[in-house]
Design a protein that fits this description.
heterodimer, A: two-stranded antiparallel sheet, B: alpha/beta, eight-stranded antiparallel beta sheet, 13 helices, 27% helix, globular
């Protein structure tokens, strides 16, 4: 079952790998459109809600594979990959509703990752 | 010709070929259509040419079920009817609105959109609208800056609207009064319609006014055009043949009352500004604009009702009170003034809060048909009005399909916004729980009364037939939105005019046959 703690075991090491190699923020940890709309504290809250509302054992594995595949990707390409993933989610109806927001699942995972990156920074 | 019925000698008898009961949008449109014909047309209006509270009082009645506006102030009772203060929003129904949809109980008109199209065109003239053309591409070339959201039109499309400034009372008073073959009677309230003993032919109607005088009107054909609530009330109150009322053998008169649900439902947050005039409207200035509509294919796939979403800047929309909270006065002028004042205050206050992300955000307001529901209905109350007619009561009842449809509309728009990456959608609280089928009190109606004398081929399924003739009565017709089998998403006036003009055309054919 995916939990905040479970997600942290996946997300934090990957985040640290990225942080050691880059100055810029990893797009994986930043739901791009949402950062133009919401305050960081609201995205953190959405990440928390996602883990609470959609516990799913498969998700942790999926997330791990996704992070492993993309953590070394150049920033520019990674943004593009994520944008395609988000678009694909909306096309296939792979969406979740968090606090009324209709989000792609990839975005929701990004919200969760954003939460950890924020916590890691503070 | 114009006659004040208060000045007639008591117990006068008025005679003509056609008697139109009610001089609102439907009644006046039909009367205009008969000018210069060889037939004598009697047009009856219960009020005068201006608002009077004593006249308006007959519209008072009780409401139950889903919260509703005071009935007294939800229509206008004088020459010109509710066009005296309407917003003039016009758009035709879609072809799917007329079809039987297996996921919408009691749907399916006995006529098609194509049957109405010629009359939509004619109604455009009466309403002084532009061409009968609602194609987005047409308007895009006519008006500047109609830049559409880049959404998949197979899912979400731009449903166009045009805006009428016609106030029928002022616009058509002289034309009607000057017409040689039209006799307009003001202060002529029909309180009962009388059929022959077998109940299949109307012989006369009783007129009353506040002077205490009673008159009689006789005609070959009678057309009821008093609005959906008052038409049902009059049929139910006309008990000369049956205690059930006229045309009510199957207990259908007054049932299937429908409104348009007009309710703030979601927020659209754009990631960057999107300059366009396509989705905004200013009274008196905008010629055409659009609302986001759901394609027929998507309605079928998701088994939902037809509805649209209009856009209001979010910083304004959030400050506006629900219309049900501002339109509370029994006096329609005061109710209107109070609502407008709230809108002005919200607009003024919003100017101070228009920075950051909210400056690119919109409130999405639903406009959706109501699923036809026999329990949503008009009945007669025990209280009488000043002329001795039982008042109309309304029980307004919504269904789970209404709620699910609204939610699905925004899920579909939300998906499209995600695919286009324009922005994101947030459902308002009352839509967030998919298992909650209820509606909060803030769900507004559009002051659109429909369905109480619904159209169907069978008298077991509707009150009027495909020509708007009351089933089982040879010479009694109903004009207006009460005849709608389903209510579509757009405001009803354009469609009710088209339907009334179609009825008018049918009657002309009948009389022509009689003459030849």
């Amino acid at each position: 079952m995916l939990s905040l703690a479970g997600l942290a075991t996946v997300a934090v090491p990957s985040y640290c790998v990225w942080k050691n190699r880059n100055d810029k923020k990893n797009p994986l940890y930043e739901p791009r459109i949402l950062t133009t709309i919401l305050e960081p504290s609201e995205i953190v809250e959405m990440g928390r809600m996602y883990c609470e509302q959609f516990p799913d054992t498969g998700l942790e594995e999926k997330l791990q594979v996704f992070l492993m595949d993309n953590v070394d990707t150049e920033n520019k390409n990674l943004e593009s990959i994520l944008e395609q993933e988000v678009k694909k989610d909306y096309q296939t109806g792979n969406t979740v509703i968090l606090d009324g927001w209709i989000l792609s699942e990839t975005e929701a995972v990004q919200c969760a990752l954003f939460s950890f990156s924020e916590l890691n920074q503070s | 010709m114009y006659i004040d019925a208060r000045e007639l000698e008591a117990n006068s008898t008025i005679e003509g070929d056609i008697c139109i009961i009610g001089a609102g949008a439907a009644g006046i449109s039909i009367a205009l259509d008969w000018i210069n014909s060889p037939f004598k047309v009697i047009l009856l209006e219960g009020g005068g040419f201006e608002y009077e509270d004593e006249i308006q009082d007959s519209y008072d009645g009780k409401t139950s079920g889903q919260k509703y506006y005071p009935l007294k102030s939800s229509r206008l009772h004088y020459f010109g009817g509710t066009t005296g203060h309407w917003a003039g929003m016009c758009s035709p129904f879609d072809p799917i609105d007329f079809r039987e949809r297996d996921w919408v109980p009691n749907s399916g008109w006995p006529i098609t959109k194509e049957d109405l199209d010629p009359f939509y065109g004619k109604a455009h003239e009466t309403l002084q609208l532009g061409p009968f053309n609602y194609d987005f591409e047409y308007w895009r070339h006519v008006l500047p800056n109609l830049n559409p959201f880049p959404l998949d039109n197979n899912v979400v499309w731009n449903k166009m609207w045009q805006y009428s400034l016609a106030r029928f009372g002022k616009l058509y008073k002289d034309t009607i009064v000057d017409a040689q073959n039209i006799q307009l009677y003001t202060y002529a309230n029909v309180t009962a319609i009388h059929a022959n003993p077998s109940g299949n032919l109307i012989g006369e109607a009783t007129l009353k006014n506040h002077t205490g005088k009673t008159h009689t009107v006789k005609a070959k054909y009678f057309i009821m055009a008093c609005g959906a609530i008052q038409n049902a009330r009059l049929l139910l109150a006309s008990k000369s043949v049956s205690q059930k009322g006229l045309g009510n053998d199957n207990d259908l008169v007054g049932r299937y009352f429908m409104e348009h649900l007009e309710v703030p439902s979601a927020e659209l947050w754009l990631s960057k500004p999107f300059p366009t005039d396509l989705y905004s409207w200013t009274y008196g200035k905008t010629k055409a604009s659009a609302e986001l509509a759901i394609s027929e294919h998507m309605q079928e796939e998701h088994r939902i009702l037809n509805g649209t979403a209009s856009l209001v800047p979010l910083n304004i929309g959030r400050l506006q009170k629900p219309k049900l909270d501002t339109w509370t006065n029994e006096d329609p002028k005061k109710a209107m003034k109070n609502m407008m004042r709230d809108w002005e205050k919200a607009t003024e206050k919003a100017k101070k809060d228009n920075k950051g992300a909210i400056s690119k955000a919109y409130q999405l307001n639903t406009r959706i048909e109501q699923s036809p529901n026999p329990n949503s209905r008009i009945t007669l109350g025990s209280e009488m009005d000043a002329l001795g007619t039982p008042r109309a009561n309304l029980h307004w009842e919504l269904t789970a399909l209404d709620k699910r449809s609204i939610r699905k509309i925004y899920e579909l728009i939300g998906q499209q916004m995600g695919i286009s990456n324009l922005g994101r959608i947030r459902l308002l609280e009352f839509l967030q729980d998919p298992n909650d089928h209820g509606f909060p009190d803030k769900v507004n109606g559009g002051w659109h009364h429909m369905g109480t004398t619904r159209m169907a081929n069978s008298p077991k399924e509707g009150v009027v037939d495909s020509n708007c003739k009351v089933h089982g009565i040879e010479n009694l017709y109903v004009a207006g939105s009460g005849c709608f089998t389903t209510s579509g998403a757009p405001n009803p006036t354009l469609t009710l005019l088209a339907l009334s003009l179609r009825l008018s055309n049918h009657l002309k054919s009948l009389l022509k046959k009689v003459m030849t």
